[in-house]
Write a structure and sequence with these properties.
With 738 residues, this protein is an alpha/beta fold. The chain contains 25 helices and 20 strands. β1 and β2 form a beta hairpin. α1 crosses α4, α2 runs parallel beside α3 and α5 packs antiparallel against α6.
Length: 738
């Protein structure tokens, strides 16, 4: 749709109003970003509301200080409203999600004449399930109940978490509307093992048949989704919706304009979402719980009914799966070249090129058939229970029994589907062609199947990564089988880019070594996509320096940790606020333990307490005029914001190269090597450049900030690739000791 004069006027006037209302000046990069997004959206052609132009995305790299959020909101809201499309804004973090919903959107509406509505979308698992909470309180008050296995599914053999008083407080707060049922809005952090007991998923939820439907936190939050102009979500929820076919949770992709903020996370999020795993011994324990649940359920069902027959079939199928899993465990335990890492108490084995040994491949095929059979029979029983909710029809099962047992069977059904995804992925023929499927397995057998490239795109994707991990504890051991796509390109293209009406991707780090190649390959971006790097408003050369001091050791030398211990006090001397970044927790703790006695109350380590408390204590020390040194690893290299006096110095102890034993990266490197490429230069160095830019980006958060970056890894000046990494950094003034 070509941009009309009215839409252009709305964008321009909206921007002027916001600048005037907030008393800030226009930024060149922000104006450029607004213009680029608006132009991209104006070039999308459509017929009767459906896009007719080729798939394309607008990709904008814009550094800190650009004002990315305001730029894409100003550009996209008028266009989306004119088209009648929903604007879906997706972030990678809860912090940015909350900032957009609670600050950026209200600010824009306050200071501009734009008229729009918005809501926050979260998955079902972020909300309280009143039915589960009521059952939990009932079970605790009456001892072990028939449905108690429901609460043990994810933590077999562990002490039951949570207290009755806590759950009663939760009930009172929700009943009085002091709390809206959103996990993120509870005043304290709720541990996962406690929260699992009072939330649900789509397989366990009875929807409109539930007694608590009219007061359901999840459905109450979803009421606005179909009515608002803007839906703020996160990458995981978008991917979950796409996995369900699109339009199940969020608006259909064809009727949405997507904005992916923090878009550099999207390819990895997609890989995680479409990966699969099966812990063998834990699954066998889970099958025992299934048998116990079925035995408790049996007396509630009349003999010879369809549900009773389903229980018999499920019991048989469950035993079949258990027997096969025992054989899989024995095969992997005895015929795998395990090399244990004693520190982690684990061993990992990757199957080269995704090819399984013949015996294991045959067992995987048997497991797939048996698990598909279990999934099918659990689905039949779940359908029988669900049918009992319809009081207009006569049914073999009474409603109370159905309400009590549907969530239990739904949980087992969901768990078995997760396992089927792994076995389906393990029986895919390498190269993307599906192995012959037995008709008896039904549609569920397609779960987790490799996505095929759409017509017009060449299948350049590597084979899937397949690997096993053997873990030891004090009194137990398990082997977990894994599968994952190595690249998410075809998945994202098929399910997202080819269907979306439009999509904008933005972040401070989308390029690697100054190019978009890495993102294009990993995200499967359409060939017609627009790519732009917005210049920063920061005066880097005046604001900061990057220093590379002389070092006696390289990070690959045995004495490097000792040199860090020796050099760091001098490096941070005279600074009030320093962040020291490590690539290894072990080395971080080693250095901290050596330095802490001589520097009491100076060093705060990331693992000492919660992230929020670490940052609070750091700021508190600075406010009191005391120096503070933060020690952190990868998550502190990207996700913290310490503007002004709270950070003057970033120390990078080692270039952030990927861990060499990551099976997905190893699979990609193997594939590139086979194609005559150089994995180190094509994967490792570009990946490191992005992480390095993110780490350095902690220093300057506003146009008033100043400081320095110290890199203690001499490879950045001593190796050929080092110059590429150095040149990928912002143009700080360089001080390099020879």
């Amino acid at each position: 749709m070509a941009l009309t004069d009215d839409i252009k006027q709305q964008i321009q006037q909206g921007y002027r109003d916001v600048l005037a209302g907030k008393g800030v000046r226009a930024r060149y990069g922000q104006r450029l970003m607004i213009a680029e997004i608006a132009k991209y959206m104006g070039e999308i052609t459509e017929n009767d509301g459906q896009r007719t132009s080729p798939p394309a995305a607008c990709v904008v790299e814009a550094g800190t200080g650009t004002g990315k959020t305001l730029a894409y909101l100003i550009a996209a809201i008028p266009v989306a409203r004119a088209l009648g499309k929903t604007l879906v804004i997706s972030t990678a973090t809860v912090a940015l999600q909350d900032q957009i919903v609670l600050k950026d959107l209200p600010d824009l509406k306050k200071h501009s004449k734009m008229n729009f509505t918005w809501t926050l979308a979260k998955g079902r698992g972020r909300y309280l399930c009143m039915s589960r909470l009521e059952s939990r309180l009932h079970d605790e008050g009456n001892g072990d109940s028939d449905t108690m296995p429901l609460f043990l599914l994810d933590s077999p053999g562990t002490e039951e978490p949570g207290t009755r008083a806590f759950f009663e407080e939760m009930l009172a707060s929700y009943g009085s509307r002091k709390w809206d049922g959103d996990r993120d809005h509870w005043p304290e952090q709720i541990p996962d093992d406690v929260w699992r007991q009072v939330t649900t998923d789509h397989r366990q939820c009875t929807n409109r048949h539930c007694s608590y439907f009219d007061s359901c936190a999840f459905f109450d939050a979803r009421k606005d989704l179909d009515e608002v102009d803007i839906v703020v979500a996160n990458h995981d929820l978008v991917l979950a919706d796409l996995a369900l076919g699109g339009g199940a949770i969020l608006p259909e992709p064809e009727n949405a304009l997507f904005i992916f903020d923090e878009a550099h996370h999207l390819p990895d999020k997609a890989l995680n979402h479409f990966a699969a795993s099966v812990p063998l011994n834990s699954t066998r324990q889970w099958l025992k719980q299934l048998s116990q649940a079925l035995a408790k359920m049996q007396p509630y069902l009349a003999p010879a009914t369809q549900a009773a027959k389903s229980i018999d079939r499920i019991s048989t199928a469950s035993r079949d799966v258990d027997l096969i899993l025992a054989r899989v465990y024995e095969e992997t335990e005895q015929n795998t070249g395990w090399e244990f890492n004693e520190e982690r108490r684990s061993a990992q084995w990757r199957y080269p090129e995704g090819e399984l040994p013949e015996t294991l491949a045959e067992l995987a095929s048997e497991s797939r058939i048996a698990t598909a059979n279990l999934v099918r029979h659990l689905g039949v029983l779940a359908d029988e229970l669900q049918g009992a909710f319809d009081e207009r029809k006569q049914h073999e099962i009474d409603r109370d029994t159905a309400e009590a047992w549907y969530p239990v069977i739904g949980a087992f059904h969901s768990r078995s589907e997760d396992q089927l995804r792994l076995w389906t992925a393990w029986t895919e023929q390498v190269g993307g062609q599906k192995a012959p499927q037995e008709n008896e397995q039904g549609a569920s057998d397609q779960l987790g199947a490799q996505e095929h490239p759409p017509k017009g795109r060449i299948n350049r994707s590597p084979p899937p990564a397949r690997w096993s991990v053997r873990q030891r504890w004090d009194h137990a051991e398990d082997i977990t089988l894994f599968s994952s796509p190595v690249l998410a390109d075809n998945l994202l293209y098929s399910r997202l880019w080819s269907r979306a009406y439009g999509a904008v991707l933005t972040s401070a780090t989308l390029t690697a070594l100054g190019r978009f190649d890495r993102l294009q390959a990993r995200a499967g971006l359409p060939e017609a996509s627009r790519l732009l790097v917005v210049p920063s408003s920061f005066r880097y050369g005046e604001m900061a320096t990057v220093e590379v001091p002389a070092m006696a050791c390289m990070p690959t030398d045995d004495g490097f940790a000792d040199e860090l211990i020796k050099r760091l006090p001098g490096v941070w001397a005279g600074e009030t606020a320093t962040l020291v970044l490590f690539t290894s927790r072990r080395q971080m703790h080693q250095v901290r333990d050596a330095l802490a006695p001589d520097h009491p109350d100076l060093i705060i380590t990331q693992d000492d307490m919660s992230r929020g408390e670490v940052l609070r204590q750091h700021r508190s020390k600075i406010d009191e005029g005391m120096p503070s040194v933060l020690f952190g690893v990868a998550s502190f290299a990207e996700g913290i914001d310490l503007p002004g006096k709270y950070l003057h110095h970033v120390v990078i102890t080692r270039l952030p190269f990927s861990v060499p034993d990551d099976p997905i990266e190893a699979g990609l490197a193997e594939w590139i090597s086979q194609r005559g490429g150089n994995p180190f230069m094509e994967i490792t160095v570009p990946d490191a450049s992005i992480k390095l830019v993110q780490a350095v980006g902690r220093l300057l958060r506003t146009e008033e900030d100043t400081g320095r970056v110290t890199i203690l890894d001499r490879r950045i000046v001593a190796r050929r690739y080092g110059q590429l990494l150095l040149d990928s950094l912002p143009p700080f003034r360089r001080i390099i000791e020879r």
